[in-house]
Structure to design on (205 residues):
């Protein structure tokens, strides 16, 4: 993980770099009960010019696999606040394990939903903002969950999120829209007449 290799949030002043989450895909096989001890295995599986892929496996106390995930991260020049090319020395420090938890080829992109219905509009407030001065990645899913139609009893088991634009404190509004289809169920948040800021795809079982 970034902290282990000296590239966590506490090391930004020293290294000049930070990682920002761009995309993630999760498959929940079995949900653990509250306060259950879990084991998380993670490894970097691929480096590209400005991004890195990291996979995860989560196990319960009996050693049963309960969750699979893959994530794509971009390296950020903390001072310039711009995407940076990954230095060769950083790749060597992390190392690679070329194993993937999902067999299908993933490019970290989701297709834009064509026909959507506006449900709500949201402007980020202080509690949404993280150390990178934008809406925390996990909050997008919470916002999407809050505006699902009440007639849907939803338990997230398969989902993908692709972040396309930073949402900052009171500077950007999210227009939340959705299109109801059988599978997958897609949720897009996008300002009117602009490109979407975040695409979320959820498969309902």
């Amino acid at each position: 993980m970034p902290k282990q290799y000296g590239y966590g949030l506490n090391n930004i002043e020293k290294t000049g770099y930070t990682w920002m989450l761009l995309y993630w895909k999760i498959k929940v096989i079995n949900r653990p009960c509250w306060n259950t001890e879990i084991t998380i295995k993670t490894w970097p599986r691929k480096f590209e010019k400005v991004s890195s892929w990291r996979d995860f496996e989560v196990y319960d106390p009996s050693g049963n696999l309960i969750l699979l995930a893959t994530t794509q991260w971009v390296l950020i020049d903390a001072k310039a606040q711009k995407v940076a090319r990954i230095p060769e020395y950083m790749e060597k420090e992390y190392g690679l394990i070329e194993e993937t938890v999902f067999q299908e080829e993933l490019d970290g992109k989701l297709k834009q939903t064509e026909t959507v219905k506006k449900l709500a509009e949201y402007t980020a407030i202080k509690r949404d903002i993280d150390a990178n001065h934008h809406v925390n990645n996990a909050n997008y899913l919470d916002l999407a969950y809050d505006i699902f139609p009440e007639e849907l009893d939803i338990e997230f088991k398969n989902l993908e999120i692709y972040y396309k634009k930073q949402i900052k404190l009171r500077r950007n509004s999210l227009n939340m829209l959705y299109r109801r289809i059988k599978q997958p169920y897609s949720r897009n948040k996008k300002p009117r007449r602009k490109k979407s800021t975040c695409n979320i795809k959820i498969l309902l079982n």
Summary: Helices lie at 12-15, 88-94, 137-146. Residues 137-146 form the longest helix (10 residues). The longest strand covers residues 65-77.
